[in-house]
Specification:
The chain has 148 residues and is mainly alpha-helical. It has a single domain, classed as Winged helix-like DNA-binding domain superfamily/Winged helix DNA-binding domain (Arc Repressor Mutant, subunit A, Orthogonal Bundle). Helix content is 72%, strand content 5%. It contains six helices and two strands; from the N terminus they run ααααββαα. A two-stranded antiparallel sheet has the order 1-2. A hairpin with a 7-residue loop joins β1 and β2. The chain is elongated. 11% of the residues are buried.
Amino acid sequence: MKRKPTLQEMAQELDRNLREVRRILRKPVEEETARLGLTRPQLSVMQVLFRSEGMSLKELSRQVGLAHSTVSGVVDRLERKGLITRQPDPGDRRLTRIMVPARLRKLGEEKISELQVHPLAEALKRATPAERRTICQGLAILRRVIKS
């Protein structure tokens, strides 16, 4: 008779599965990032900026979870590539807002969304309707119990 796995064993299996899912989902983004000649920190900065109307270096550092000096260097390199701009903050001209130029914003938002969602959409196409419901319900339950 097969024994029931312990909670520790279940947690380890769940962790392995989540790591593999994250790896699979990151792959298209990482391939595109490499194609564009961006580093992972540069991509992280761009992703945060695409979701904002611009922010200070301090705010950006906090959002990406990297040191101020690291983000400053990343911003300098992205600015040289023409991927971001620095503009005076309209509310306080002593501050600088870092933002994605309007010409790149729409394109970038669409491309990042496509790269992140496409693998999930393709996987869901291969699942049965019952499996789709189970996947969504299971993840919603996991998120709820982790937050509790």
